[in-house]
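User: Just a sanity check before I run the rest of the batch. Below are the structure tokens for the first item. I only need the designed sequence back.
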């Protein structure tokens, strides 16, 4: 069998790290696009956390730089390309709408062009998002639910989503789009609400902090585990035909419920520690999201394996361990 070689953009992020691990375990030769940073000691901290930093070949590049993407594509000659790179923090997208558009939106056109020019037979995965549903048009969202983006991030993702579909239909690329609902893990960025909560719960338990300031506690999300979700990405690229899939657990929970579970796990009461601070509210909110993963189950044989309770406990325990061992993550 020909060597299976994957190129992952966003390899230093949460999903990039879990996907690298998954593909290495499958026997892939894994390459990643690395955005240059002056802080060299932290760039591959997630890959190090999973013990795979020396097994992934990194290539300097940026999603906004087409010529560099073409050179990387020529050097790697991938059989599969996973486009996970993005300015992915929704709240920052109001502060940096043009950058978000350039990376999260136009960046998708850049990588699709690089694939089309250099390796049109490679299979392509685009990291689309449940944020595209925004002001939800149906109580439970599926592949046929109309989109209503509510942030510069979501609008940029919608552009990338439709470009992926257009490159499939116009040029015959094997290009699939995963409409993934929120997925978390111990490797989640600290600015996202779940990890912000589990890190704070760990600090409060260890006597390093007393309060946790949050925004909208009533927002509801469908939270799964990133480790489960990267498998769905891979499954999409193993199908004969490319397509779009919702990936979700089908369970909706509020930020308050997530918080309650995290504090209870260490024997604390959230009401003794959580304060609401308006600086964490957004110019417009996505109040609730919950996905219908029936298509992914029927066609990919994929289901979420980790419950919300298991996810919360793993994240809190990992943050306690990290703080006690003074690890960087
Ligand atoms: P992260 O924020 O953890 O990772 C984003 C990655 O993109 C990082 O590796 C980052 O590099 C890289 N990146 C940012 N800008 C550029 C750029 N200009 N050029 C090259 N690389 C860049 O995101 P996640 O791992 O959580 O998510 C992966 C993808 O899935 C993203 O596209 C996200 O929008 C999407 N998504 C995520 C969901 C989730 O719940 N996690 C749900 C639905 C979609 P650096 O390390 O240098 O910052
Ligand atoms: P989200 O994730 O915007 O859904 O995007 P985030 O964890 O940032 O917010 C989830 C919900 O929690 C509310 N919230 C807070 N959020 C943050 N970050 N900090 C707080 O203090 C806080 N308090 C309440 C938010 O208002 C929101 O309703 C994530 C990203 O990974 C995207 O890239 C991805 O596309 C979507 O998930 C699906």
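Assistant: Here's the designed sequence for the first item:
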């Amino acid at each position: 069998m020909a060597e299976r070689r994957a190129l992952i953009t966003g390899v230093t992020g949460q999903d990039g790290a879990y996907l690298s691990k998954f593909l290495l375990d499958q026997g892939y030769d894994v390459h990643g696009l690395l955005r240059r940073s002056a802080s060299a000691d932290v760039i591959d901290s997630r890959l190090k956390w999973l013990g795979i930093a020396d097994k992934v070949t990194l290539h300097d590049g940026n999603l906004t730089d087409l010529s560099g993407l073409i050179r990387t594509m020529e050097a790697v000659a991938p059989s599969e390309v996973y486009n996970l790179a993005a300015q992915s923090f929704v709240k920052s997208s109001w502060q940096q709408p043009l950058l978000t558009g350039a990376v999260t939106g136009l960046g998708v056109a850049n990588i699709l062009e690089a694939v089309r020019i250099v390796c049109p037979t490679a299979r392509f995965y685009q990291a689309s998002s449940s944020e595209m549903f925004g002001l939800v048009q149906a109580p439970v969202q599926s592949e046929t639910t109309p989109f209503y983006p509510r942030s510069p991030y979501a609008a940029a993702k919608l552009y990338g989503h439709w470009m992926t579909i257009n490159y499939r239909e116009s040029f015959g690329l094997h290009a699939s789009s995963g409409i993934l609902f929120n997925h978390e893990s111990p490797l989640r960025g600290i600015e996202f609400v779940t990890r912000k909560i589990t890190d704070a719960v760990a600090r409060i338990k260890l006597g390093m902090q007393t309060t946790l300031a949050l925004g909208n506690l009533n927002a509801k999300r469908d939270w799964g585990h990133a480790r489960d979700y990267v498998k769905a990405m891979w499954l999409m690229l193993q199908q004969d035909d490319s397509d779009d899939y919702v990936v979700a657990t089908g369970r909706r929970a509020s930020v308050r419920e997530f918080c309650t579970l995290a504090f209870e796990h260490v024997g604390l009461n959230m009401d003794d520690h959580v304060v609401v601070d308006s600086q964490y509210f957004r110019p417009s909110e996505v109040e609730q999201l919950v996905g219908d993963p029936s298509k992914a189950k029927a066609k990919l044989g994929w289901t979420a394996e980790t419950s919300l309770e298991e996810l919360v406990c793993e994240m809190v325990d990992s943050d306690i361990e990290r703080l006690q061992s003074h690890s960087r993550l």
